[in-house]
Design brief:
Shape: globular
Strand content: 15-25%
Order of helices and strands: HHEHEEEHEHEEHEEEEHEEHEEHEEHH
Radius of gyration: 21 Å
Helix content: 25-40%
Number of strands: 17
């Protein structure tokens, strides 16, 4: 039996304590940066100490279903080039600590090897939405106007939102990724308050920003300033065939073996969730679950493109306008980060960012590369292969 999972992030509800602590400690205690040699020393010290007291064991018989999908994608590709791996297993299962070995060398990393030791900055800097937004603005990149607040600044946040930005809005935790506890397209003060309530469950600090209407969320992953893959995130939906009810179309889509339950971390795509949002969206079209949509009619069942709610991933790399590819590369170079996920909001990725209203939403220093490997449609992109190239280039 699995632990109770939060519907807003797909993580065990107890994980919220950890995300709160992460936000507080990252604010109060500056993260130290080390050289490659020093970083390796502390990684070994951590590993040996925890192993000595029996808190972890380094094992090479781990299953991909027992670790994060992003790590599994990288490890699977690296093994093809002769790299061997061990993963740290604690009392509650595998943690995100790995040891890679090839040619007598051992390289330790968390989740993915990001080559932080050769960057000018601490790469996790970009995981703070507030700081990233300020630097993106300084760099002349397109952003959505917004501001960060702490839990106790609710009244200031409400005043700022109504008086200075105006609706529609987005509220999200200041830390975190993959749209966890995010509320989009907020159109009233009541919805805004609910959005703040949701965000502060995940983090004591939250960000409010302008919502870019009539747009889609795209995730670009940039490796070593050169390789770029882009996927389009689409809210849960079904496409009519002219005969089947919405209920039947949902059941058919959920029977796809590529879709798992929200707590199953070995999946990238998940089953469509039917909830109050679904009922409201269908009612706006005078539909219910027994309605029969027209052939090729797309019926959206969720407002937000969250994977845990059954959202789709459409690989669009080959359709991306060259200006947008260059934009993503420039962002990676600006932050001197050799692996980065970029959330980009735009109406049409095939048009230049210069010719449409768009915004860079946030960056992620340890991106979920699996979304490019297992899209619901479009040609899969082997981001892991590019990351293995980076691994051999900067670690060996």
């Amino acid at each position: 039996m699995f632990k109770k999972h939060c519907k807003d992030c797909g993580l065990p509800a107890t994980h919220h304590v950890q995300t709160w602590l992460d936000e507080i400690t990252s604010t109060l205690i500056p993260r130290l940066r080390f050289s490659k040699k020093s970083e390796s020393f502390f990684d070994i010290l951590f590993e040996k100490t925890f192993a000595f007291v029996g808190l972890i064991k380094m094992r090479d018989d781990f299953l991909f279903s027992e670790i994060q999908m992003r790590s599994a994608c990288f490890i699977e590709e690296a093994r093809k080039r002769g790299v061997k791996f061990k993963a740290a297993k604690g009392p509650a299962g595998y943690v995100n600590h790995f040891c890679a070995e090839i040619g007598g060398q051992k390289i330790r990393f968390e989740s993915l090897p990001v080559a932080e030791h050769i960057s000018k900055y601490d790469v996790s800097f970009v995981d703070c939405k507030e700081r990233t937004k300020k630097h993106l603005k300084k760099g002349g990149f397109p952003i959505a106007e917004g501001k960060s607040f702490w839990l106790w600044q609710r009244s200031q946040a409400l005043k700022y939102s109504v008086d200075e930005i105006g609706f529609p809005l987005v509220v999200k935790p200041r830390g975190g990724s993959v749209a966890r506890h995010v509320t989009t397209n907020i159109k009233s003060k009541g919805e805004l308050q609910k959005g703040i309530d949701k965000a502060v469950i995940y983090s004591p600090a939250f960000v409010i920003e302008r919502f870019v209407e009539n747009s889609f969320v795209y995730r670009a992953t940039v490796v070593d300033f050169n390789y770029v893959a882009v996927v389009k995130q689409v809210p849960a939906n079904v496409v009519g065939d002219g005969n089947s009810t919405i209920q039947k179309l949902v059941e058919k889509k959920n029977n796809d073996k590529r879709r798992g339950e929200s707590h199953q971390k070995e999946f990238t795509l998940y089953k469509i969730i039917i909830d109050d949002t679904t009922t409201k969206l269908l009612a706006e079209k005078n539909y219910n679950l027994q309605a029969i949509p027209k052939r090729d009619e797309t019926v959206y069942l969720q407002k937000n493109p969250f994977l845990k709610l059954g959202g789709d991933l459409v690989e669009v790399t080959e359709k991306v306008h060259p200006d947008n590819i260059q934009l993503f590369k420039n962002i990676a170079k600006f932050f001197d980060i050799r692996l980065v996920g970029i959330d980009f909001l735009a109406p049409d990725i095939s048009r230049s960012w210069r010719n449409q209203t768009c915004a860079v939403l946030e960056l992620n220093s340890v991106p979920c590369i699996e979304i490019h490997h297992f899209p619901s449609s479009g040609a899969p992109q082997n981001v892991a292969n590019a990351l293995v190239d980076l691994f051999f280039k900067y670690y060996l």
